[in-house]
Amino acid sequence: MARRSHTREVGNISSFDLSEVGAGKEGWLVNDPNLLIALDTHSLALSTRTQVLVIKFGSRHHPVKIRPDLSPIDSEFISALEWLVFDHLSVLAIGTSCGYLLLYSLQGHLIHKQIVYTGKILKFRVRETKGDLTQDMSSEEVCAVFSGSIARFDGSDIKNMLHRWFQEKESEYLVQTSNNMDPENSENSFARLPYQLWNITKYGACLDGAITGVMPPPLMELQSNQRYYRAIAIGRDAVISAYRLSENRSRSIVGAILSRVVPATFSTISSLSKMIWRSKSAPQKKPEAKPQPFAQASSLTCLKDHPRKGEKLTLSPSGTLAAITDSLGRILLLDTQALVVVRLWKGYRDANCLFLEMLVNKPSSSQPAYYEHVKSDYCLCLAIHAPRKGIVEVSGESIWCFCFLTLLLHFIYRITLQISP
């Protein structure tokens, strides 16, 4: 019987010149801390601190080079990279050390530029959100993680903006004007994307974080149409910390009164002073883009165990589970809804985790040949790569599968040699 292969080739990049991102050096794909990688179904993005190479699988064209307009005064550099896919639209999201969000097309055209917060964007996270009982459709949410805050973008807002941009491109209007467009004005090509921003530094600066879903309002809270989100973060001071995020910036009556009275009072005083002193109006300058103020975030719980520190956070596709690695070589499997650690692994220093789905219910002979698998046919598994042990361990909900790859590091090294020019 012929041996079955459960893998298929996604793309081949060995024919491209990748020396600009460090190809050709030993371990360049694994050991370079400044190299960012974003993998999509049809494309691969490799980024250094100043430029991005976009490789489209199955294409013989040279990689598309993207050089964002970075500020040399602030020593700005690329700090985050992620693909955003909405229906048939794929764009590349780039985050900078100054807190800017940049969206680029596959051809390297700048679609949108917007400041989110004055800080380094550590990571982008994309999560599918299911609709409630009144909504059958599901959408996505995009989160930008900072060292002390987290921002949330609604996927529908980004999707609508992308549809408008591609419609303009199809009408050949944007293509004609993009060549002469000032990069400083490119961020105002469309309306500013709305988002929410929260401060999550109560237990110290965080190394990574994520919004895991919607949660009920706190007790004794008046019911309203506002949503509450659950967020988790990891850091040096607190291994795990959890927060309840509110869409409102202020829920108290005093805060609502002050937010209305104080601006009106200052506006009245300013207008009276202008009438009295008849000050000449200064020439108006283009206002600088500023991040919006924080919304309300309340802490739920935290885990402090000095000297243990959180290192990496891996979120499941649904957001209900999270795998957290710490500085003591442990892996904690966290139930993000109950905020309970349901499993603990020890002896996995410098480990990397990845959630994947394994097919467990195969179609029977009585089912048609064109049978399409449903979600219940798959089992959620957690793959753990322990580089010091040289193994990959895959554990699932109902099965335990241990794949000991003693030559894993050598295998990665051989892949690196094949990719190098």
TrEMBL record:
What are the residue boundaries of the Rab3-GAP regulatory subunit N-terminal domain, all occurrences included? 28-394
Q: Which organism is it from?
A: Lithospermum erythrorhizon (Purple gromwell)
A Pfam family it matches: RAB3GAP2_N
**Name of the featured protein:** G-protein modulator
Q: Which PANTHER family match?
A: RAB3 GTPASE-ACTIVATING PROTEIN NON-CATALYTIC SUBUNIT, RAB3-GAP REGULATORY DOMAIN
Please give the InterPro entries that the UniProt record associates with this protein: Rab3GAP2, RAB3GAP_N
- Signal peptide residues are none
